[in-house]
Amino acid sequence: MANDWKDRLGTVYSTNPNFQYESGDDGEQETLQPNKQDLRVQLDKKQRNGKKATLITGFVGKDEDLKELAKTLKTKCGVGGSAKDGEILIQGDFCNKVIEILKSANYKVKRSGG
């Protein structure tokens, strides 16, 4: 508990010597199996200066697994992108290719949006 003072900002402390601090974090959610994931793939152009990006949403699981899936998709598409908050962003219009890659990895995937 030496370096986690930033996690406790805004916490009210007790003078009770038996007080136990609880952060309220339940831990990370376990990653679902690929066939139980319900992913949505859409083309996104909002706030990107007219540039297209493929957005994959609906991933349920750990950040490490999300980043690993994003790395696989970016490598197979040959482009850059990012992964955070349960979303994967792939630069460019690769919706159909991403859907094929995810289906071959046994993910349940649907195209959403226009």
UniProtKB/TrEMBL annotation:
UniProt-listed Pfam families: SUI1 (PF01253)
Domain SUI1: 46-106
Top-level taxon of the source organism: Bacteria
The keyword Protein biosynthesis is annotated on this UniProt entry: yes
GO molecular function: mRNA binding; translation initiation factor activity
Keyword line: Initiation factor, Protein biosynthesis, Translation regulation
GO biological process terms held by the UniProt record: formation of translation preinitiation complex; regulation of translation; translation reinitiation
Record InterPro entries: DENR/SUI1_TIF (IPR050318), SUI1 (IPR001950), SUI1_arc_bac (IPR005872), SUI1_dom_sf (IPR036877)
Membrane spanning stretches: none
Family to which this protein belongs: Belongs to the SUI1 family.
Protein's name according to its UniProt entry: Translation initiation factor SUI1-related protein
